[in-house]
Design brief:
Layout (H helix, E strand, L loop, with lengths): L1 H13 L1 H8 L8 E8 L2 E8 L4 H9 L4 H10 L5 E5 L5 H6 L5 E5 L3 H14 L4 E4 L2 E2 L4 E6 L19 E7 L1 H4 L8 E4 L5 H6 L2 H7 L2 E6 L1 H7 L4 H9 L3 E5 L4 E3 L10 E7 L3
Parallel strand pairs: 3-4, 3-9, 4-5, 6-8, 9-10
Antiparallel strand pairs: 1-2, 7-8, 10-13, 11-12, 11-13
């Protein structure tokens, strides 16, 4: 009778595929897990939470998320450089890259995700990551963000059709979160359609530092957000002596081009003056 009950449980409740994965330790057994990522010969601890969805599950299933982007960011870093991680989520990029730079300033506005990142910093014993529970924008304010259930990394200030819960979060300008006269050299921006506000709302400090920027670019979301246009954002860089590399097209642009206006992960590099 017990065997029959177990078989029924596997077939009709858990499912055969999930049963096999569980036996092979390929799915979360609990909601929260301290996981070790092996990257570039180093072991890095990170807290994964099944409730946060896509990124956490991707790391658990595949060992690392966006390795190609992390490799490219690492190639721009050195022991003398400062890295900004704007829209850090659970902190995988910063946790992996902390050994390769002098200082990291990271920003995550959603308190639950911020806490998991903070726990990851403590688990690794890092003292060169300054994590702040805020978004970056054009002014200091409080604003509602839509927390994406099942994919916390896709949480956005843009309302979507999924009726995700609203969370009130802080927004600060970049200058107000950094020490006075702090230089920075490399920036990662992943803010789900708020990227033009982050950059053009803080353009003076970006022009002063002229960092290399790794940008998740979503022209449709920028248009929906409405403060700026994607054309204005890209031409800000092109007009200030930057070149734009498209991962999708594997091509570098030095002038505006219709090909650029698609969802992409761009690399914005300052040209030598």
């Amino acid at each position: 009778m017990r065997i029959i009950k177990s078989i029924n449980s596997v077939i009709f409740q858990e499912g055969i595929i999930n049963f096999i994965k569980r036996k092979q330790n390929k799915t979360f057994l609990d909601n929260r897990l301290l996981y070790t990522i092996n990257y570039n010969g180093k072991k890095t601890k990170i807290f994964l939470n099944k409730k946060f969805g896509f990124v956490d599950n991707y790391i658990f299933e595949n060992g690392i998320y966006e390795k190609e982007i992390i490799d490219d960011i690492r190639s721009e870093l050195s022991s003398e450089k400062t890295f900004l991680d704007i829209g850090s989520n659970i902190g995988q990029h910063s946790l992996l890259l902390a050994p390769y730079c002098k200082q990291i300033f990271a920003y995550e506005p959603i308190p639950l995700i911020y806490t998991e990142f903070l726990n990851g910093i403590k688990a690794n014993g890092y003292n060169n990551i300054v994590l702040q529970n805020t978004a970056i924008g054009a002014r200091e304010e409080n604003r509602k963000i839509y927390f994406h259930i099942g994919n916390s990394g896709a949480s956005s200030f843009l309302k979507n059709r999924e009726n995700n819960p609203e969370i009130l979060v802080k927004i600060n300008t970049l200058a107000s979160t950094l020490p006075k006269n702090q230089e920075f050299h490399v920036v990662k921006i992943d803010v789900e359609g708020f990227e033009a506000v982050v950059i053009l709302g803080n353009k003076e400090i970006f022009l002063k530092n002229r960092p290399t920027i790794f940008l998740e670019f979503s022209p449709n979301c920028i248009r929906r957000e409405g403060t700026y246009t994607p054309e204005l954002l890209l031409n800000f860089f092109l007009n200030n002596n930057y070149e734009i590399f498209s991962r999708v097209l594997n091509k570098t642009f030095t002038e505006d081009d219709p090909e650029l206006y698609q969802t992409d992960n761009l690399i914005l590099r300052p040209k030598a003056i």
